[in-house]
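Q: Give me the 3D complex with adenosine-5'-triphosphate.
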Amino acid sequence: MALVVRDLAFAHPGREPLFRAATLRVEAGTVVGLTGPSGVGKSTFAALLAGDLRPASGEIQVDGRPLPRRGFRPVQLIHQHPELAVNPRWRMRSVLDEAGRPSRETLDRIGIRPDWLERFPEELSGGELQRFCIARALQPGTRYLVVDELTAMFDALTQAGIWHTLLDLVRDRGLGLLAISHEPALLDRVCDDQISIERLR
Ligand SMILES: Nc1ncnc2c1ncn2[C@@H]1O[C@H](COP(=O)(O)OP(=O)(O)OP(=O)(O)O)[C@@H](O)[C@H]1O
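A: Here is the predicted complex, encoded as structure tokens.
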């Protein structure tokens, strides 16, 4: 069981190709770090894996099957800025219900207090909001998570709390995780393996 990328090519419209034959494998149950300087294509690669962008050529397979083009996405992407990832006009209860609300037990494990469900996004801190984005990404059909600078915006304590929660849940569910980060110390702590995006280009 693995998330497999083979010979993937992609260019943003009118730009030089960012990837010509990118190849990567993330085994289920492992955490792989993706590093690299700013602007080389890490977020673009994440969007390709999640199905938000289509490769020009090459393939992405999830546990032996092609990444579905519609319907539920087994590779879920969590962005750096949670406030941009939720509808500001919806209470958090509706944000979660749209995807299928996780059980109270799961919400407790993620550290989401019951009264937060009645709040609007602007009434939560960034760290609290990121916990909702994690909850929303952990659907029953989720097999792999891609996190793009998951905690770069938060203080050390919030960062540690969110990573602890995420790794715990990922381990329990046997998910694979691709963690994009600029922080070598963080990746050293959480990853089984690391790869530089330069090797994918
Ligand atoms: N929608 C887009 N249309 C055209 N070019 C884009 C688009 N999105 C990103 N780019 C360009 O593609 C390149 C890669 O961007 P990307 O955001 O994937 O890099 P990154 O490695 O994630 O950077 P950072 O670490 O700063 O977030 C950049 O040169 C960027 O300007």
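A quick observation: Residues 2-200 form a domain with the Rossmann fold fold (CATH 3.40.50.300).
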